[in-house]
Amino acid sequence: MWSTAHARRFVYLFHRWSGIGFCLLMLLWLVSGVVMLFIGYPKLLPQERLQALPVLEVPGCCVPAEVALAHSRAPAQLQELTLTRIGGQPRYRLREGDGTLRLVDAGTGRLLPPADEAVALAGARAFLPGAPARLLGQVEDDRWTHGRALDAHRPLYQVQMDDAQATLLYVSSATGEVVLDAPQAQRYWNFVGAWLHWLYLLRDGSHDPVWTWLLIILSAAGTLSVVAGACTGLWRWRFQGRYKSGRRTPYRSLPMRWHHVAGLSFGLILILWMFSGLMSMNPLGIFSAAHGRPDLAAYRQGTAGSMQATLTTNEALALLRDAGFATSELEWKVLAASPYLLARSASGDSRLIVRSDQIWTVQERWPDAQLITAAASLRPAAIVSVEILHDYDAYYYERQEASMYAGNARRLPVIKLVFADPGKTCVYLDPRSGDLVQSVDGAQRAGRWLFNFLHSWDLPSWLRAGVARETTLILLSLGGLLIAASGIFLAVKRLLLATQQARQRR
Q: 270-309, pLDDT tens digit by residue?
């Protein structure tokens, strides 16, 4: 019969032998986690992309958007129509319903072929003017380009820039625009940072279920190993009385005492980090939206291809110029069946061109009431609360540049709506763009606490603490490193002893 003594013996042995491998893995995760506080995985941030765009010329910049739309395979399903500059030249970028990208010369209205080497080099030089560029070739995927957001741009051109940061640029073969920049220092730090933390050396492409399940299994087993170690440490600690040695720990050797005491002191935080690391993989999709995502098609009631504006591109740019706005990018959008244009500047500021009473005007934001009325169609349930946020809350907040979420624009103010659906879905609308920038239901809220909070300590108030938060995380990581390092020492010692005993039995 399985007794308490047998159960404890099993826990002891499981921790002893599983810890041999997992202490090394935890050491790698802790070291790389500290690096990730300051150095993020290479990505092209929205502000970096916009800063590289010159102002669109007025007048006579471009042919009307309808000319570009004529090249779409299915305008009614078009996801995006944007006027931007690529390689220094004005281009219409079309994202089809299936996600594929097409490029139209905004000067002539001609459909452009996929980018060749010359176009890729031009795009790189326009992104970093004055820096010599050297084409390295094409890659489908490499250690810095696992993100799924890059799938529509693959294969990618690699261009090495001879600037002060020795930046490696990745250029879209579909459009010729820079989609990722990786300075040399960031690449080197990532070998002991995010690339090591996520075990990207074992990942094959942006879609790799084997890698996904490997991380899930390793994280789950590591969590169990740490929990077993915590149980062992508690069982062997004398809370009342002492051992014959006069200590509360039974271990006589210094490494064992360090491991025991460090485990009791920092074991809980290590358990939480291991468990939240497991949750980061969203095992079995437990944190995916349980009742479907908000209905953006009902919110928009049209696409840039199906709802054409009665305003030419040059007229729109002239309106923005007269309003004192330096436009670097222009996007055609629809809200509640009404077409409008969203303009962005190189500084990241934005303006809307909206039609009212048959007159097109430039404005900074949508009226709150108009957005809230349109938002009622996002979910098949009533809106139970409306709030205008002028500060961040626990679900809508900005992260530092090193974070994997740094590319998510989180501007203020924002309109927060809560629906009376089963998941109590909460959506956030940006009045400056009319976009739904975030939505969370019950399952996603659970994921926010079990992964993001436990793993990153990212409450807005804690993020504002800056150095204090980072110092605390580093000190706790050092405690975890003491557990892992002493465990590795003990594991090596045990393995050497086991090897010696095996030789003697021969």
A: 999 999 999 999 999 999 998 889 999 999 999 887 766 6
At 168-212, the pLDDT tens digits run: 999 999 999 999 999 999 999 999 999 999 999 898 888 889 999
Q: Which residues contact 449 (CB under 8 A, 6 or more apart)?
A: none
Cα torsion 299, 303, 308, 313: sign: positive
The structure's pTM equals 0.91
214 in a structural domain: no
451-480 as b/e: b if 16+ CB within 10 A: bbbbbbebbeeebeeeeebeeebeebbebb
For residue 3, is it within any domain? no
User: Quick one: DSSP state of residue 193?
Assistant: T
Give kind and range of the element (H or E) at residue 430. Answer: strand 426-430
Strand positions, DSSP E, 40-166: 80-86, 89-95, 101-105, 111-112, 133-139, 156-161
Task: Give residue 212's Cα distance to chain centre.
Answer: 16
Task: For residue 65, give its domain range.
Answer: 46-72+79-187
Contact 78, 333 (CB under 8 A): no
Pairing between β-strand 111-112 and β-strand 101-105 as defined by DSSP bridges: antiparallel
- Judge whether 314 and 61 are in contact, CB under 8 Å: yes
Gap between the Cα atoms of 113 and 119, Å rounded: 10
Domain count, the chain: 1
Residues 6+ apart with CB under 8 A from 348: 46, 47, 50
Chain centroid to CA 67:
35
Angle subtended at Cα 125 by Cα 38 and Cα 117, rounded to the nearest 5 degrees = 110
Q: Which amino acid is at 62?
A: C
In a domain, 300, yes or no: no
Indicate the SS3 state at residue 30.
helix
